[in-house]
Amino acid sequence: MRERWKPMEDCIPRMLFRALLLFWLMAGISSCGPEHADHAWCHAVEDPCAAAVYAADRPEGRALHVNSCCGKKSGDGTLDRPLLSVEAALEAAEDGDVILVGPGVYEEAVLVTKPVSLVGAGSDSCTLSSTAASATLSIAEVKGGLFAGFSLEGAGHGGLYVQKAEDMELADFVASGYEDDGEFPGVGVFVADSTNVLLRGIVAEKNQTFGVAIQNSTGQFLSAAVRENGNGETSAGIAVTKGSRFTLGQELPADEAEDTAAGDLANGGGVVENNTGMGIFVDDSTVIIVFCRVAGNQFGGIALMDCIETEGVISRVQHSEVLDSVTYGVAVFGGQAVISDNVVDGVTPACADKCAAHGISATDSATGPAKVWIERNQIMNSEGAGILADKVDSGAPQAGRGDHISIIIQCIIWDNYVSNW
User: Fold this and answer.
1) Which of 189-203, 351-365, 394-408 comes out lowest in average pLDDT?
2) What letter does residue 114 receive in the DSSP assignment?
3) What are the DSSP calls for 141-178, one per residue?
4) 293 has a pLDDT exceeding 90
5) In angstroms, rounded to a whole number, what is the distance separating the alpha carbons of residues 211 and 224?
6) Which terminus of the chain, N or C, has fewer Cβ atoms within 10 Å?
7) Cα 88 to Cα 143, 180, 322, distances in angstroms
8) Is 51 helix (H, G, I), strand (E, B) or coil?
9) What are phi and psi of 53, to 5 degrees?
């Protein structure tokens, strides 16, 4: 009987070998190769390695390609032989190169210290995800370049960190879910000690301390969506501090301004809403806030503290909506500011007994009285004063505003009341 079955026994190893070989070949085809972890994207399009999967809007320069589906550790960065990681591309890059990153998830923390551009396929399809304690994407001491097209997530304290940069554009980033690590606050986007930085199309949401923090930097912030950040009165959706000079929103000619709504992202406006802290906090800096919609923030709408004059420019809040705030809509503490052509609607107190709830307030700080010009605002539905002016300066000159500092003119104020003062 045993001799009868021997030929079948001899066949079993050969059959098993062929089955395993077939399985291995099929697995290799379906997973786009053993080096790639992001299998889902590889099946999402007909040709995940084609030129069309990379961003079309890119600077001039030699292109280095990174692809989660067909990249190889032995690649050279060409379209036909892409690299497997952003880190490998940075090591191979020379000054002025453009690193193009295809769709997928790249599990790495990235540090850029070369004058290059880094352009992902888009924040809706290209993700940097890091388990490192540092920021997910850090850019340090780089001049020029475009950095764009990524969703950022990770276990560290920040999403996008930019320090000592010049003449740079940061566009189409989503930074969410970053938490304090005990040493650093949880921040979606952080820009420090940098000049002429343009942030465009940034989404920062559900970060523990700040959605966006700007320190000692100059530039502009267009089409921002900053939501559900913060953890109390010492946090904010956007914080601009330490001598910064920044514009939040897009300034427009008077004829265009009449037809533009606050918070219109398509025209460069900003949305700062539902943060569990202040909406926008400014300290010792100069800001222009224009065509922004600031709504539903739990520790005040816009706070301007000791705002400074920089090269004849003073801080302004214009053509914006400040809605459904707690404690104040717009508050000026010392410093100088112009508050004009805004709608401030709905301010409630943070407590039941003698807590402030004013539409627009101006008062002194430790450095001196506030110097404000308030005009052509609509202020309504505050559970305190429509406008509260306390310890303000009414005699010193102000650049471009004549001989008076603290003036209230042409404001429409209605349906405000004081229920607990």
Assistant:
1) 394-408
2) S
3) S-BS-EEEEEEEEESSSEEEEEES-EEEEEEEEEEE--
4) yes
5) 10
6) N
7) 21, 29, 46
8) helix
9) -80, -15
DSSP label of 54? S
**C-beta separation of 153 from 177 below 8 A:** yes
DSSP string of 22-37? HHHHHHHHHTT-TT--
Q: Is the separation of the CB atoms in 94 and 62 below 8 Å?
A: yes
CA dihedral 62, 162, 246, 339 (to 10 degrees): 130
Among residues 308, 296, 317, the alpha carbon closest in space to that of 247 is found at 317
The pLDDT tens digits for 134-143 are: 899 999 999 9
Q: Say how far residue 142 (Cα) sits from the centre of its chain.
A: 19
CB 12 within 8 A of CB 18: no
Kindly report the pTM of this predicted structure.
Answer: 0.87
Q: Give the residue-averaged pLDDT of 164-180.
A: 97
The 10 Å Cβ neighbour count of residue 356 is 21
- One-letter amino acid at 170 equals L
CA–CA dist 236, 281 (Å, integer): 6
Spatial distance between the Cα atoms of 248 and 279, rounded to a whole number of angstroms: 13
Question: 341 with 360: CB under 8 angstroms?
Answer: no
What's the full length of the chain, in residues?
421
Nearest to residue 138, comparing CAs of 92, 95, 94, 187?
A: 187
The two structure tokens encoding residue 138: 């850090």
